[in-house]
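Table 4 source record.
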Amino acid sequence: MAYWLFQGNPEYYRVLDAIKELEQIPWLVTRYAKDIVPGDGVIG
């Protein structure tokens, strides 16, 4: 299992509000997308 760090620019996306309000958060991944698998951990 791997852990991934996802960054968000608060000028474009309210990450903290999304974490509080949503059960799942859609996120566009451009690098390492092929390496991310179900069950990996996420650090936001």
